[in-house]
Description:
This protein is mostly helical.
Amino acid sequence: MTKSLVRKLSPMVLLMVPFLYLIFAAPFGEPAQTILEVSYLCVIFGIVVWESRRNADEVEIAAARFITAIGAYAGIACTVGFLIVMTRSTAVADFIASLAESPANDLPPAAVGFGLGAMTVITLMFLCAIIAYAAWSWRAARPQA
């Protein structure tokens, strides 16, 4: 990878570290936990969009179009794949059911399940967009033979 690609991807990866902490550590009770997670994802998305608009050249504009066109579809495909794994694997389904029925939250299990599903979709689409952006930047930076 080139130094410019690492410099461009580092803030996005660093923004995901606190989000992953929020997901797995769950320091706040529900519904504040879910509201904070969704708000943080909106902030990450806003920062990524803002940074992609600043000083954009033709290659970066093409990369943004590529991640919008390909990254979003890959995220949807990963989400469908995760849904298939969840319905076929009893261990994953039991884990999600235990999270939804946890006495620590005050929401009904259906609301918690819906929130977990929405967070999974958003996270997978964001991660697939980052991977698509890295692939596009790597391909654009390679010398043409």
